[in-house]
Amino acid sequence: MQLDRILQSQGFGSRKECRALVRDGEVKIGGVVATDPFAEYDENGFTFEIGDWEWEYSAKVYIALYKPAGYECSHKPKHNDSVYMLLPDPLVARDVQSVGRLDVDTTGLLLFSDDGQFIHAISSAKRQVTKSYRATTNQPVEDAQIEALLTGVKLYDDNEPIHALEARKSGDKEIELVIDHGQYHLVKRMIAAAGNHVDALHRYAVGALSMEDGSLPELELEDWCYLRPKHLELLGYKP
Ligand code: URA
User: Fold this and answer.
1) What residues act catalytically?
2) Atom of ligand 1 nearest to the CA of 203
3) Is 149 exposed, middle or buried (0-12, 13-18, 19+ CB in 10 A)?
4) Pocket lining: 197 vs ligand 1, CB cutoff 6 Å
5) Ranges of CATH 3.30.70.1560 domains, the chain
């Protein structure tokens, strides 16, 4: 594929802008400044440098972000900054979308992609990819609350009780729970229905992809990384 087309496909602007990037000496390939925007490259495994970053060509892109508190999962946030501000412009220009949403005050693992099938597969209620959370509670956790989360709590807008796949007391005021649903404020509402209150919420895993078992590169708050085929496999997804 021509270099200008490769750059365009990766979110670096229109073809004209991408040609200008090359002509301005902004693009390096293998450490050498590229000069010909029309040069042909095999895009598979192709890497290039722009600015301080080494980019790699990918037909579809899959990203994991360590979301900090204070960011909304929306392109048009109402009262806070947007999580999309934490991603580099070319990824946003590729129109990556978050896979489901985390509340503004929730921290942890948030996935993004421009692959609609992936987004659907991971967030679809049918496929039931699990999500693992750690909640800091306002009151000491009681065994009865864990029992209620496991057997099912009734939320005011649901007919059927909803239960966690796993729930355990992980500290005096801390609960770890695994769910396979994705409704609005679900964890907070479940814990409220069980008789406690969530003061802070952190998502540490989506499916078998965890921030805490080495299955992902170590991420600091606000950091992101590419998801590789081995990560997608952990999510049960084959592009
Ligand atoms: N459940 C919640 O209550 N909030 C989140 O951000 C995610 C799940």
Assistant:
1) 103
2) 7
3) buried
4) no
5) 131-206
Q: Which of 64, 59, 62 is nearest to 113 (CA)?
A: 62
CB 192 less than 6 A from any atom of ligand 1: no
Query: How far is Cα 167 from Cα 132, in angstroms, rounded to an integer?
Result: 10
pLDDT tens per residue across all 239 residues of the chain: 999 999 999 999 999 999 999 999 999 999 999 999 999 999 999 999 998 889 999 999 999 999 999 999 999 998 999 999 999 999 999 999 999 999 999 999 999 999 999 999 998 766 779 999 999 999 999 999 999 999 999 998 777 899 999 999 999 999 999 999 878 899 999 999 999 999 999 999 999 999 999 999 999 999 999 999 999 999 989 88
pTM metric for this prediction: 0.92
Which CATH number is 66-123+215-234's, of 3.30.70.580, 3.40.50.620, 3.90.1150.10, 2.40.40.20?
3.30.70.580
